Amino acid sequence: MDILRRFYNIYFSSEKDFARKIKPLLGFTPVRLGVFKQAFYHRSMNVDQGNKSFNNERLEYLGDAILSTIVAEYLFKKYPGKDEGFLTKMRSKIVRR
Fold it and tell me: What burial class does residue 13 get, using C-beta atoms within 10 Å of its C-beta: 0-12 exposed, 13-18 middle, 19+ buried?
């Protein structure tokens, strides 16, 4: 079903221009284009649409967690002899920047 949705997003969706522009950046076409589009909005774009509040703070939270995980894995492999205190400090320094 995801394959059909990706095909639809590229050729028939009202967001097909966005899908075509983001595909080379990501290496794939997202199934849920709305989530990716929302991620590009700055938090100052907090707009109410009916009963829904539109901002990307939840996506920012998720992105921060993913970035932290990627950096943690990298450091874990790069410094196999270091303890968790060193790894935590290094991850914190890298992610904070």
Answer: middle
pLDDT digits (tens, 9 = 90+) for 74-97: 999 999 999 999 999 999 999 887
pTM of the model as a whole = 0.52
From 35, 25, 26, 33, select the one nearest 5 (Cα to Cα).
33
33 CB-near residues (< 8 Å, 6+ apart):
9, 13, 15, 18, 19, 22
Domain residues for 11?
1-40
Q: N- to C-terminal Cα distance for the chain?
A: 39
Tokens of 91: 């991850």
Domain assignment present for residue 67? The answer is yes
Task: For 35-51, give one letter per residue: b (16+ CB within 10 A) or e.
Answer: ebeeeeeeeeeeeeeee
